[in-house]
Structure formats: structure tokens, C-alpha cells
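Recap slide: ATP-dependent dethiobiotin synthetase BioD, sequence and predicted structure.
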Amino acid sequence: MSDPLSLPSVVLVTGTGTEVGKTITTAALVAVIRARGTEPCVVKVAQTGVAADEDGDLQTVCRLAGEVPTAEFVRLSDPLAPDTAARRAGVSIPPIAVHARRIGELAEDHPIVLVEGSGGLLVRLDERGGTLADLGTALRYKGVSAGVLLVASAGLGTLNSAALTAEALKARGLPLIGVIIGDWPADPGLAEQCNVEDLPRVTGSRLLGRIPMGAGALATQEFVASAPSWLDFA
């Protein structure tokens, strides 16, 4: 199915690290895609650091952007990389191939599937060392169009992580759709201001927007109304 934003069928949302705003960015993407008349589906491959009876990232997305079709594949209580959390819990988690098949099936029923990763691009999502990058490769091998959105932190140190991520994607032939700053401060300093110009330079991809700090505390109506002003896919 085609998407009015000209995004691939599956968008893998990764970050330059943890706590950079991937979940809030995913919610903003839902709001923007809906504003263009398309209903997306949101997938969390591996939710860690959340107990079975607690709200996870998908619940945050729905709280901010409104109810949306979702799927969570794995949940582990330790706040660690999925393979480490699974090992500590003494449980087995599905390999990347299984995740790719399920996401491919969802892509047949939804015009766009947003897949939020865990931490950065090469965090291990299964016991075999499979990563979000491997998931993207598996999807493309199956004929499913897939690309990556990189959520970057605003401040000092982000350029190196962003450049490494872009290099890893290029080595695997995975398209980097663009970069979004997930935690833009109200009063940006010199590093933040320079990163607006430097992030596209070091990644070779467009800066698609900036999510303001505190956006995750907004009520649904305000979040949905504001999201299009944060992101620019034109």
C-alpha cells in the first residue's frame, strides 16, 4: 500500500541511544500520518523495563496520539537490552525472522507500520544477536519496503552516534529516511544550535524535525494539534 507521505511500508524508528525521545517521536509520527488521512499501525518489538501490569511505550503512544492499532511482541521486566533481559529471566525470545514475518503480515493490512526499536540500531533483540538493522534487512529480503528514521539527542555527543548509525545503515543497504531531534530544549545552547546544521551533514540525510522537551506531558488534543508543526516531510 502507498502512503501519502511517501514513506516506505515499514518505518523502523531507532535512536542514537536510550531516552532520546523515540516513543514521543513515534506518537508524533502517528499524529502527522493521521493528519494526511492514513491510519498507521505501531509495533514494539521488545518492551523492556516494564512489568506485565504496567503501561509501556505503546500505551504512551496511544495516550498522546489517540488510540491506534498496536502490537507488542516481547515484554521483559528488567531495564536492559532484550537479549540480556531474557537471559536474566530465563526465557526464550523469538528470533528476528519471526518478527520480520509478523511485521510483514501487518504491512499487508495497514498502509504504514511504525516499528519502535529498543535503544540504538545495533541493540540485540534476540538470543542470536539479531538487531533492528537485521530486521530491516529481513523485511527488504521479503520484498517489504522498509526504511529507518533516526531519533537523535539534541546536545553534545550526538554527532558521533548519529554518524555511526548512518554508516551502519549504509553498509547494510538500508535507507535512512531522515533524522529527528527527539528532545529539543526551549533554550538551546551552542551545541544544540550547531547540531541542527551538522546532523544532516554527518548522516547524509535530512533533518525532518525537532520534538520539544516536555511534549510527552501534553494532553492528547494539544499533542495531536502541535505535532505537524514539529515535523516536516515536505
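Strands lie at 10-15, 41-48, 70-76, 113-120, 146-152, 176-184, 207-212.
The two ends are 20 Å apart (CA to CA).
(End of recap.)
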